[in-house]
Amino acid sequence: LRPKIELDTANAKAVRIRVIFESSSRRFPLSNGHWFEGTPGWHIDPTDGTARPVADSVTPAWLQRLYRSPALVHPTSDLPRLLTDFIPRVASSLGAELPDLSTVADLVDAMPEIRLDTNGDIVGARAKLVVNYDDNEFPVPPQGFPSPLEFLPPERGQSRPRVVRRDVGAEMAAVQRLLKLGFEPDEAKEGLVATGDDAVDFWTHGIAELPDEWDKRVPDDLAKVTVRKTSVTPQMRVSSGVDWLSLEMTFSTAGVAVDTDELRACLEHGRNLVKLSDGSYAPVKEEDVAEILERMAEIYAGTGADPSKLPLSQAGRVQDLMKLVGDAKISAGAKELFGKLGNVDQIPAIAKPRNLKVKKFRDYQKRGFSWLVFLHDLGTGGILADDMGLGKTLQTIALLLWVKNKQKKRKLNLVIAPTSVVPNWEREIQKFAPALRTVVWQGADRHDKRFELDDADIMITSYALLRRDEELLHALDLRYVVLDEAQHIKNPMSATARAAKALPSERRLALTGTPIENRLSEIWSIIDFVSPGLLGTLKSFEERYSRPIERGDMETAQKLRTIIHPLVMRRTKIEVAPELPEKIEQEIVVPMADEQSKLYKQMLKEVRDSVMSAVQKQGVAKAQIQILAALTRMRQVACDPRLTKLSGEWSDETSGKLQALEEIVQEAVAGGHRLLIFSQFVTMLGHIREMLDGLGVKYEYLDGSTKDRQDRVDRFNEDESYNAFLISLKAGGTGLNLTGADTVVHFDPWWNPAVEDQATDRAHRIGQTRVVTVYKLIARDSVEEKILKLSAKKRELVSNVLTTESTPLKGLTKADIDDLFS
Fold first, then answer.
1. Cα(23)–Cα(2) distance, rounded to whole angstroms?
2. What stretch of H or E contains 220?
3. In this structure, are residues 735 and 712 in contact, taking their beta carbons and an 8 Å threshold?
4. Which of 273, 414, 447, 752 is the most buried (most CB within 10 A)?
């Protein structure tokens, strides 16, 4: 007896499943006869007494189970689960065939019709297969097998469900065709994908190989796609106007162009074919276009993305781009402009302003001035990074004077400098360009000068006041903002840098004596001040330039130099040595710190009466001791209040000169210069030592108590890691050869020129191959400044007093003494 599964309708909402046995078309329900478990089991037919064995597939357990429950009734809604899961498992276990479905459902048996839905692009094809049975559609799974049965609700007016019997073999054969064309199941296992060459082959050839009877649905732009053989290449045209560059960049092959955004998207998605304007496709090589697209993005990032009017600050980037593009057409005007930007000698020489009162305007200064005028005419800013002592201030003053002479409308220029340098700007302007009306914005009473700004040409203030008076400065209508010692904004996150960059002005100029090209920590912030956006954001600058250069990427370093080169002019003393005297001397008048100035005025009041009383009673010559004591006392305060040993909260910050010296040392060391620093006060040298220690500057030291003088001199001359040599003027004024240094600082002036020159000559003597720069620090509104104004003859007389020599001061009058202590 073989088991057979039967299905029938129990009622309108239920179906019955039962198992019977049959033999030779005779049915044996489990309710008839006697059934015996065993291996095999047996059935005894009482009607004829025949014993029949049960098929071996029916185990004793199954026979017992079937005997107890020969039929099961389930809701019709369970039919899908029963037919796809439960009944097949029972049939498999019993070794029975599947039941006839027509007893409980209307069957849909039809030939499968395959439909292929596609989308994507030339190098990324996506496909889904759909099968249709008598207008009933079902997705074909890309992996595994579809359900052989699909259940549909009854037709209208009918109660029996409909069942579609799918042709699993035909559907799987359709999937195999696509797999052979290079497709793979997608991640969701809902469709198929082909990429790269497989996708290209599919669009160009594979679709045609699929059966004609398939319904193939293909996007219009991919239906009859053409793939060209030649790769996309860049073409570039550059022209220029008065103050702008025009950049026309195209990418094409065989005269057919590709949209730049399309090309960029192609690379971003890793595709090697790009769609052209005529709908065809062409190969694209990342190495041919990726870097060009990146450079274009950098150029447009800070310019409003208008390639027809690029600011000239982008000239370096455009030239850098030209090197990458083989097919570049440059207009004659643009070529001339690039030549001038690349070589200052090609810039037309501009005659210095007639009212610039300078005896010798050196050739390199004329070139620097002409370059500044050139940048002015181009409408862009720049960085004048000449070596210290080469006259950056003079060249800038010449520019501002030239602009004033050319422009009918007066407009204010703002110069921001370290506090210690502010008076020097005022002196230089008064000396070289008295036609420029200047307002020094310093001191507690500075706001009293607010209305003077209306008629001024130049306003000079300090970095400290830039932050403090930010609101007032931002409200000014400015032509130029000039940052002197621009390394003060090297930290882009500092309040000083943010305040400087927020100043509204037509143009910006930065002055620095340090070679910023080699200092990535400073370059971004200073360039961002002069030409905002040129180097992108700080984050992108660090990613594109800082980190690669720090890893030794010389190509990136050269790329950066190319970009900033048009905006930076730097000449070293070595380069312009033939134009320089052997020795450059500069007097720097330094303002005293606030508390220092108060102490000076207080002490001046105290000593003046006693000195003038002694002069009145004894005469100038016999009052020499009192004059010496008073002058020494005043000079100590002018140098550093700590020299007076008076109680008070004194520090490096309360010495204007020490602050100025710190600026000089930092700039000199950064520029590769080595210094001799002289002072007549040994105690002052001690404070300078502490300052150098704080800066991490390596130095040698020599005063009257030093025993191994020559060893220290030799060490300094031979070991260039020593950046400075501190020397007591009396101890080091003679007998030393210190040609290892090229910068001399007289912290406190020696009023006899011969004695001062003797000290300077420690560096400037036979064997010195470089130009020596000499700085003399003078405290503003002090006895030092007053002595400076005396005639050379009278200065020598004062010097005699200061050196405690016994020469009578016959040449000095009571009026001279009165003026010194006024």
1. 7
2. helix 220-223
3. no
4. 273
Same domain, 247 and 356: no
Same domain for 747 and 628? yes
- 146 pairs with which residues across the strands? none
| 8-state DSSP, 347 | S
CA-closest candidate to residue 545, choices 563, 529, 533: 563
Averaged confidence pLDDT in the chain:
86
Does residue 801 have a pLDDT over 70? no
Contact call for residues 341 and 315 (beta carbons, < 8 A): yes
Q: What is the CA radius of gyration of the chain?
A: 48
- Asked if 162 contacts 153 with a C-beta cutoff of 8 angstroms, the reply is yes
Residues 320 and 444 in one domain: no
Q: 159 and 250 in one domain?
A: no
Give residue 356's pLDDT.
96
Identify the bridge partners of residue 459 per DSSP, sorted by sequence position: 414, 439
Nearest-5° Cα angle at 739, 800 to 660: 60
| Same-domain pairing of 381 and 410 | yes
Decide: pTM greater than 0.70. Answer: no
Q: How is residue 142 written in tokens?
A: 């890309």
Q: Hey, which residues does 236 pair with through a beta bridge?
A: 249, 328
CA angle 328, 331, 334 (to 5 degrees): 100
Identify the residue whose tokens are 């080595």: 674
The proportion of the chain whose per-residue pLDDT surpasses 90, expressed as a percent, equals 40
Residue pair 103/10 in contact (Cβ under 8 Å)? The answer is: no
Q: Is 75 helix (H, G, I), strand (E, B) or coil?
A: strand
- C-alpha span between 706 and 715 (Å, rounded): 14
> Where do we find the tokens 């579609």?
164
Token match 């070679």: residue?
Answer: 515
List C-alpha distances in Å: 131 to 48, 140, 174. Answer: 55, 6, 10
567 CB contacts (<8 Å, ≥6 apart)? Answer: 313, 316, 375, 380, 381, 382, 383, 527, 530, 531, 534
User: pLDDT grade, residue 794 (50/70/90)?
Assistant: low
CA angle, corner 221, sides to 216 and 223, nearest 5? 35
Residue 441: half-sphere exposure toward Cβ, Cα within 13 Å:
28
Q: Is 542 helix (H, G, I), strand (E, B) or coil?
A: helix
Report the number of distinct structural domains present in the chain: 5
**Across 15-24, 40-49, 303-312, 704-713, least confident range:** 303-312
DSSP state letters, 757-790: HHHHTTTSSTT--S-EEEEEEEETTSHHHHHHHS
User: Please, are residues 809 and 620 in contact by the beta-carbon 8 Å criterion?
Assistant: yes
User: For residue 189, which of 249, 128, 238 has the smallest C-alpha distance?
Assistant: 128
According to DSSP, the residues that pair with 19 across neighbouring strands are 5
Residue 477: which of 452, 453, 460 has the closest Cα? 453
Query: Same structural domain for residues 131 and 244?
Result: no
Give pLDDT tens digits for 327-338: 788 888 888 878
Q: How far is CA 35 from CA 26, 40, 72, 398, 611, in A?
A: 16, 11, 20, 124, 145
| Cα 501 to the center of its chain, rounded Å | 16
Give residue 374's domain range. 348-578
Q: State residue 805's pLDDT score.
A: 44
Q: 108 in a domain, yes or no?
A: no
Give the single-character DSSP code of 227.
B
61 contact partners, CB below 8 Å, separation of at least 6: none
Query: Are the C-beta atoms of residues 236 and 321 closer than 8 Å to each other?
Result: yes
Distances (CA, A) of 405 to 254, 371, 430, 463: 56, 17, 17, 28
Q: Which of 85-99, 161-175, 308-322, 510-524 has the lowest mean pLDDT?
A: 510-524
CB half-sphere exposure, 395, CA atoms < 13 A: 32
Mean pLDDT within 317-341: 83
C-alpha to C-alpha distance for 395 and 414, rounded to whole angstroms: 16
Q: What H or E segment, with its residue span, contains residue 329?
A: strand 327-330
Of 313, 285, 719, 764, which is closest to residue 508 (Cα–Cα)?
313
Give phi and psi for 533, each to the nearest 5. Answer: 90, -10
